[in-house]
Every structure is written in structure tokens, then in C-alpha cells.
From TrEMBL:
InterPro entries: MmgE/PrpD_sf (IPR036148), MmgE/PrpD_sf_1 (IPR042183), MmgE/PrpD_sf_2 (IPR042188), MmgE_PrpD (IPR005656), MmgE_PrpD_C (IPR045337), MmgE_PrpD_N (IPR045336). It holds the Pfam family MmgE_PrpD_C. It comes from the Bacteria. Residues 290-478 form the MmgE/PrpD C-terminal domain. This is MmgE/PrpD family protein. The lineage of its organism: Bacteria, Bacillati, Actinomycetota, Actinomycetes, Micrococcales. Residues 21-267 form the MmgE/PrpD N-terminal domain. It comes from Microbacterium aquimaris.
Length: 508
């Protein structure tokens, strides 16, 4: 049973001892050698498959290519074997922080991997690239990698349960820096003091504003978690050399809580596992069936259902208005409550469109599904009948859906809402959905075979059949992999695939 660590701001003269600090408690959790249970190990394997799937689908996209080129322009650091880069030959390695960067962008680019939503947002699969990169570099085996990943997921999810960042316009990767640092600490079997210093620096260097997810969303959206992972690797390296970090990073009177979050009178209760308690938080997270913001997943499924039941709804001439009654977060972040004109702009970037629920619902309603490429093309976004339907869709906050969004009861927690479609003749069509079909409580919860099917679907255009089978066979033996086998945990593109991608030049 988790215990709650009470965190509040302390004046400097209070001289808060490190044993009372959240960063210290995180470090203690990371240093706890508790075994990872079978259910958690199996889900970690699923998420490694999931990350590889979405990375494969993004290999030739410009932001991913740019990050990959940056990584490949850096040599392997002298103290290890280096880490692999998605798409490249297994022998082509780079320094672990740069592998974390390149692979982190590849994983995040399509907004298509796992998620956890509570007091804030998160994509805990973002922990995998930095922790795996360090494991490959130092020669850790599969069992050590499993332990490190269990910690990364645990810490990020626990922070997301308790501390809201977006309310203060702080990007959600501020929870990722500390979690990745903690996971690397577990992987390397570091002592609590070293992990504590790394967590402090990782948080200090990864707090940034949410403008990266506001207005016309730029390609930095995919780079932000990769940067947090890269900073986590560097923070651990620095702490291992005996260097210290700002303290108390959360609770100080000039610290994160006092000046970036709820202010000098604020306090939070962060749930963390007790000593000896297995780290199982990954089991509370969920992946995406569709390549879009998680809060759009259930709405895509509902639109798909309505498309099959009533094809007349696809024609804007038949529609007076469509209102999606949903949670505060959905309304204000990806809905009309954001007051972002770009969310209704047919020329908006892909990153913006995947954060526009009016656009997503319109396309899914007309097409009866969603595709990670076709649903975002300029031609698809600019289709006249789609634009006409899209502009009839708005969102509205509903107190009950907001309450359910924030519920701590997994059986009640919901990310959907109720749609009211007013037809041109004055009649209405109403329906609702609580969670996505792929959610653990949804109509078709994702299981191992679904993760594998997603990987095959996304990998087949860019990986050879033998490479798909090699990776799937290897990753499903994760807990028993040797250090040499861990170094093979990557995907190698077909000959010519990477050559077709942009190869931008910079300083490096």
C-alpha cells in the first residue's frame, strides 16, 4: 500500500533536512531492490513493443531525422559501448544521452504511445529511451533494465497523480526528468544520495512553459520529452561524479512549488511505494489505438460507432451543430475552450491538428476510423465538406465528466463525454463514451497480441520481415536477456529507408 509523502514549501531558516524532501523519498524508492512482479514485467515488454512500433512509423519524418542526425554526429563516449539509434544498424551507436534524444523524439513524434492522466498529463513510455540507452552503454542485462523501467514508470505516474503542472502553464515533462533520473539510478544500482542529487538536477533543468502545446504547436512537442530524458542521463552522470544539485528543489522558498506551482502556501501529498512494495504503477497506464492526443481516443471510437450506425451524420448539410460535453481538461486543452483559432484552421500543423478535438471528431465521423498518416494530410484537413462539418463542432465543460476525469477510482475515471448532434430538421442524436475501446476497462482492452499487431502494422513499411521477427522474439524475452542482447534492443530500417529521409545539417 502506497504511503503519501506530504510536501510543502519551507522557508530557508527552517533548514529542511534531505530526509524530509520529496526528492529524497523518490531516491529511496529508486534504491529499493524490491523484485518486479510478473504482471509488471509483462507490461514493460508490451510498452517496449509499443515504443518501437511508433518509432518505426516516424523514422522518415523530419523532426525524427533531425534528432537522429544530431545523435549520429556525436561519437560514443569513451567509458562504454554506446547506445543504438532507432532505424540505424545495430553497430552504429552514439553516446547514451544522444541516443536518448534521438529515440525519444522518434517515440513521441506521432503522439501514439502510452499515457497516464490524473492531476496532470504524462506519457510514461518517454522513460524508456533514456533508461534503455544507459543500459546499452554500460552493459546492463534485461533484469536490470526491467527494474529501471519499473522505477521510471512508478515515479512519473506517482508525481502525475499528485502535482498539477499545466494549471501553472508548466509543461508536463517536468515530471519526466526526475522519473527518468530515478529509473537510471535503479538500473545502475546507485545509492540514495547519488539518485537524490540526480533527481534534483533533472527537475531543475526540465521545467519549461506549456507554450510548446499552445497555439500553433511546433515540432518541439516531440523534442520536449527527449530533452528531459537527455537531461536525466546527464544529471545522473554528474551526480555519480560527486556533484550536487539545488536543494530543496521542490520545497525551497525559491523552489519549484513556491514559484512555478501553487505558491508559498502550497502543499501536495505524493503517493510513493513503501519500502519493499513492488513498483506496479505501469499497470495503471494505457496505450493508444489511435495516433492522437489521448483525450481524443474515446471520441474517435465514439465517432467510429456513430459513422456505422448513421452514415447521414457525415454530411455537414444534415448537421446544425455538434457539441461534445466533456471534462475541463479536454474542453480547455484540445477543445474550443482553448480559444486557439488554429484548432479550426485547415492549414494548421499536424501537431496542432492532433490537439484539436473538433477536427479529430469530424474526420473520424466521416471516415469511420483514424489513420496515423492519412488523417492528417493537408488534403484531408482541407476537404471542403470536412471543414464545413469541423466548424460546426464545439466543446463544453460538463462538471460530471470533469469529476470523473479526476476520480482516483480506476473504475470511475473517464476521459470521454457525451455528444449532442442537432440535425438540420431539429431532431437530435445523443450518445456517450467513458473510456477508449483500447483502455483496460474499454470495449476491447489492449493485450500482448494487440501490441504486436500495432507493431507489425506500423513497422511493415520500413522494416524487413526478418527484422520484425528478430525484434519481437528478442523483446519478449526481456527479463532474461544478457547485456549483449540488451544492446540489440532496437529496430533496423530496410536498406534505403533512412536515405529517403531529410538529412539536415547544423553546427555538429
Amino acid at each position: 500500500m502506497s504511503v503519501f509523502h506530504h510536501t510543502r514549501v519551507h522557508r530557508s531558516e527552517e533548514n529542511l533536512a534531505r530526509e524530509g524532501q520529496l526528492a529524497w523519498h523518490i531516491a529511496q524508492v529508486a534504491a529499493d531492490p524490491v523484485e518486479v512482479d510478473d504482471e509488471t514485467r509483462d507490461m514493460i515488454v508490451n510498452r517496449l513493443i509499443d515504443n518501437a512500433a511508433v518509432a518505426a512509423a516516424s523514422l522518415t519524418r523530419r523532426p525524427v531525422s533531425a534528432a537522429r542526425q544530431q545523435a549520429l554526429d556525436h561519437a560514443v563516449s569513451i567509458s562504454g559501448a554506446g547506445a543504438t539509434v532507432f532505424g540505424c544498424a545495430l553497430e552504429r551507436r552514439t553516446s547514451p544521452e544522444w541516443a536518448a534524444w534521438a529515440n525519444g523524439v522518434a517515440v513521441r513524434e506521432l503522439d501514439y504511445h502510452d499515457t497516464f492522466l490524473a492531476a496532470d498529463y504524462s506519457h510514461p513510455g518517454d522513460n524508456i529511451p533514456p533508461i534503455l540507452a544507459v543500459a546499452q552503454h554500460v552493459g546492463a542485462d534485461g533484469a536490470a533494465l526491467v527494474r529501471g523501467l519499473a522505477t521510471g514508470y512508478e515515479i512519473q505516474i506517482d508525481l502525475v497523480k499528485a502535482i498539477c503542472l499545466h494549471k501553472h502553464k508548466i509543461d508536463h515533462v517536468a515530471h519526466l526528468g526526475p522519473s527518468a533520473a530515478a529509473g537510471i539510478g535503479t538500473l545502475l544500482d546507485l545509492d540514495p544520495e547519488t539518485i537524490y542529487q540526480a533527481v534534483g538536477q533533472a527537475l531543475h533543468t526540465t521545467t519549461a512553459t506549456r507554450q510548446s502545446r499552445k497555439g500553433e504547436i511546433s515540432t518541439w512537442k516531440a523534442h520536449a520529452p527527449a530533452f528531459a530524458g537527455k537531461m536525466a542521463v546527464e544529471a545522473v552522470d554528474r551526480a555519480m561524479r560527486g556533484e550536487t544539485s539545488p536543494s530543496p528543489i521542490y520545497e525551497g522558498e525559491d523552489g519549484v512549488i513556491a514559484w512555478m506551482l501553487d505558491g508559498p502556501d502550497a502543499s501536495y501529498d505524493v503517493p510513493l511505494p513503501e519500502q519493499g512494495e513492488p513498483k506496479r504503477a505501469i499497470l495503471e497506464s494505457y496505450t493508444k489505438e489511435h495516433s492522437a492526443e489521448y483525450q481524443a481516443q474515446a471520441w474517435i471510437d465514439l465517432a467510429r460507432k456513430l459513422h456505422g450506425e448513421n452514415p447521414a451524420l457525415t454530411d455537414p448539410a444534415n448537421i446544425e451543430s455538434i457539441v461534445l460535453h466533456t471534462s475541463h481538461h479536454t474542453h480547455y486543452v484540445i477543445g474550443s475552450g482553448a480559444n486557439d483559432p488554429q484548432k479550426y484552421d485547415p492549414t494548421a500543423s499536424r501537431e496542432t491538428l492532433d490537439h484539436s478535438i473538433p477536427y479529430i471528431f469530424a474526420v473520424a465521423l466521416q471516415d469511420g476510423g483514424w489513420h496515423h498518416v492519412d488523417s492528417y494530410t493537408p488534403e484531408r484537413a482541407g476537404r471542403a465538406d470536412t471543414v464545413a462539418l469541423w466548424h460546426k463542432i464545439t466543446t463544453a465543460e460538463d462538471d460530471e465528466w470533469t469529476r470523473r476525469y479526476h476520480s482516483i477510482d480506476p473504475a470511475e475515471k473517464a476521459f470521454g463525454g457525451r455528444v449532442v448532434i442537432t440535425l438540420a430538421d431539429g431532431s437530435t442524436v445523443e450518445d456517450e463514451i467513458a473510456v477508449a475501446d483500447a483502455h483496460p476497462l474499454g470495449a476491447r482492452p489492449f493485450a500482448r497480441e494487440d501490441y504486436i499487431a500495432k507493431f507489425r502494422l506500423l513497422a511493415e513499411p520500413v522494416l524487413a520481415a526478418a527484422e520484425i521477427e528478430r525484434f519481437l522474439e528478442l523483446v519478449q524475452r526481456l527479463p532474461e536477456l544478457t547485456a549483449d542482447e540488451v544492446r540489440q534492443l532496437s529496430i533496423v530500417a530496410k536498406l534505403g529507408v533512412l536515405a529517403s529521409a531529410p538529412a539536415p545539417k547544423g553546427i555538429f
